[in-house]
Amino acid sequence: MTVVTKRPAPGPGREPTTPRPTTHRSQPRHRSLTRALPLSPAVVLLLLFLAGPIAYCAYIAFTDLQLTGQAEDSFVGFDNFRTAFGDEAFLNAVWLTLVFTVISALIGQNTLGLGLALLMQRASKPVRTLTGAIVITAWVLPEVVAGFLLYAFFRREGTLNAILDWLQLPSQNWLFTLPILAVSFANVWRGTAFSMLVYSAALGEIPKEITEAAEVDGAGGRRRLWHITLPMIRRSIGTNLMLITLQTLSVFGLIWVMTRGGPGGRSQTLPLFMYEEAFQKSMIGYGTAVALLLLLVGSLFSVVYLRLLRTEV
């Protein structure tokens, strides 16, 4: 026996109703909120410890705040920035910062890191272990410790001159005659390990079939490097250049321990100039303006590298 269930008829004056289709407009918004919720603590911390101090520094840069000598600070507009661009010491620090960055990061760490990565790819296991241990040990040393070691290496009675005297070659006071080159070499020695690790990981991702096929076709090592290896690790090169540039722009302890920016300001980069103006001369407003300019320089480098990374090979 079949039981048939009938829907009750609508009452008088009422029209029959049909079920409304379920809408899904609120689901994407709900999903977005659900995905963003775990990120909210990190966003709050970034706003608290990064955006907040930057905003406060931006405010101080437009004041004449000093550590001593006056009770209250006042708004001075762009006077600190005009003073900076008219200050020969500031312009000298900008030039030395660019020289230090190009020599130690773009040329030194980047090129040497790539060379070590290529060497370790083909070397035996004992050679890879020894090379990696030496380079990474220099990288993990604190800046101050590395600065004292390199100071002992370059000083007048240091290790480098002892080696030159043993080889009967002329020696000199490297920290006095060539201070910016000495601190650049020190930064190369300390920071090359990062580039080596980045490039070692990138080279490991290149399919061996491609390089083996090129070798079978008669391509030499230089052609394989230029036409296969470098194009395939292009994005790693750009990322590495951006990171080591930003790191080098902020180097302070290494140079401070070795030369303190001297002699005569010949190794005074922007971080040391900023420290001297803000804390030794007590001009916090002026020093903070220099810090904002340094932040702007780092941002410009980042924009250039990011635009290069978007370009396809």
Describe this structure in words.
Residues 22-31 have a biased composition (Basic residues). It is found in: Cell membrane. Keywords: Cell membrane, Membrane, Transmembrane, Transmembrane helix, Transport. This is Sugar ABC transporter permease. Residues 12-21 have a biased composition (Low complexity). By secondary structure, the chain is mainly α. The protein has a domain at 94-271: MetI-like fold (Orthogonal Bundle). 71% of the residues lie in helices and 0% in strands. The chain contains 15 helices and no strands. It has helices at residues 26-36, 40-60, 79-85, 88-122, 125-140, 143-154, 159-166, 174-177, 179-204, 208-216, 221-232, 234-249, 253-258, 270-280, 284-310. α3 packs across α15, α6 crosses α9 and α9 (179-204) packs antiparallel against α12. The longest helix has 35 residues, at 88-122. The radius of gyration is 30 Å and the shape is flat. The mean pLDDT is 85.
Give the termini distance in whole angstroms: 75 Å
Within the CATH hierarchy, at the fold level, what is the topology of the domain at 94-271?
Answer: MetI-like fold
Using only C-alpha atoms, the radius of gyration works out to 30 Å
Order of helices and strands: HHHHHHHHHHHHHHH
What value does the average pLDDT take?
Answer: 85
CATH superfamily of the domain at 94-271: MetI-like
* pLDDT < 50 runs, ≥5 residues: none
Helix-and-strand structural type: mainly alpha
> Biggest β-sheet: count, sense, barrel?
none
Q: How many alpha or pi helices?
A: 15
Strand-residue proportion: under 5%
Shape: flat
Helix content: over 70%
CATH architecture designation of the domain at 94-271: Orthogonal Bundle
What is the class of the domain at 94-271 in the CATH system?
Mainly Alpha
How many strand segments?
A: 0
Protein name: Sugar ABC transporter permease
GO cellular component, one term: plasma membrane
Keywords: Cell membrane, Membrane, Transmembrane, Transmembrane helix, Transport
Transmembrane segments: 39-62, 93-118, 130-154, 174-199, 241-263, 283-306
